[in-house]
Write a structure and sequence with these properties.
The chain has 237 residues and is an all-beta fold. The protein folds into two domains: 28-127, Immunoglobulin-like (Sandwich); 134-232, Sandwich (Immunoglobulin-like), CATH 2.60.40. The protein has strands at residues 28-31, 34-37, 46-54, 60-68, 74-77, 83-85, 90-97, 106-113, 120-127, 134-137, 141-147, 152-160, 170-175, 180-183, 194-201, 209-218, 221-232. It is rod-shaped.
Length: 237
């Protein structure tokens, strides 16, 4: 007789509730947990989407969405609340930020649900802080040779490449010449905007060379522009 071979089979049964949906309750998962918005210009609005997922086995009720502290330039938009999220499904929420003077760049979105383990879930909100970036072209002005009594005018294009308003614009003379003048047509430049700063030279006799140093300042910075001109001292024919 050949020896007998006995084969034993063991059946492994997973405990009840194993898998991505744990337990019998609703379970909230938020994506993303931190919202980072790129910088936008003052007056424009940046926005992003937040997904509220229910990975439980029962419907998840969303009772309230609130941003705090309030009045910081952040808003949230969602379907009418309270809202039910069926198991395995999701609810889309939109958060937006409108930058401006004194507006906070960070805040928190609080999500109130009936998730027994996470009834008040908080999502961090961040936005790039607005900034001012002013540049002038040309960076220096040479009026060249000018006849006595004649006026030479040169424009300087001043642009704001930043995301915030360049305000409180003003002109300051670091070195002054009586024959060189400047005028500013406005006191602020919007983000992406520009203006023409006009400088002029009217030699009235005296020095052969006139020089000045002009400072263009705003609330958060300044730049300097050297100015020079030469007077034609030769008498006309």
């Amino acid at each position: 007789m050949w020896p007998r071979t006995v084969v034993c089979c063991v059946l492994l049964v997973a405990p009840s509730g194993c898998g991505p949906m744990e337990g019998e309750e609703s379970r909230l998962v938020v994506d993303p947990e931190l919202v980072r918005l790129p910088g936008v210009r003052e007056g424009d609005t940046g926005s992003a989407s937040v997904r509220l997922l229910n990975l439980g086995r029962r419907p998840l009720q969303v009772s309230q969405l609130r941003i705090f502290p309030e009045g910081g330039g952040w808003t949230v938009a969602a379907p009418p609340l309270p809202a039910l999220i069926p198991p395995g499904e999701e609810l889309g929420v939109a958060v937006a930020h409108r930058p401006g003077p004194g507006v906070a760049s960070t805040s928190t979105l609080r999500i109130n649900t009936d998730d027994p383990d996470d009834p008040a879930h908080c999502v961090g909100l961040q936005a790039v802080q607005g900034f001012v970036l002013v540049a002038a072209a040309p960076t220096l002005v040479d009026f060249g040779l000018a006849a006595s009594g004649a006026t030479v005018v040169r424009p300087i294009r001043v642009q704001n490449f930043g995301l915030a308003v360049a305000d409180a614009l003003r002109l300051e003379w670091l070195e002054r010449s009586a024959d060189i003048n400047a005028s500013l047509p406005a006191t602020e430049i919007a983000p992406g905007g520009s203006l023409d700063l006009l400088v002029s030279y009217t030699p009235r006799g005296g020095d052969a060379v006139d020089r000045a140093l002009l400072r263009l300042a705003w609330s958060t910075g300044a730049l300097t522009i050297p100015l020079s001109g030469r007077q034609d001292l030769l008498a006309p024919d």
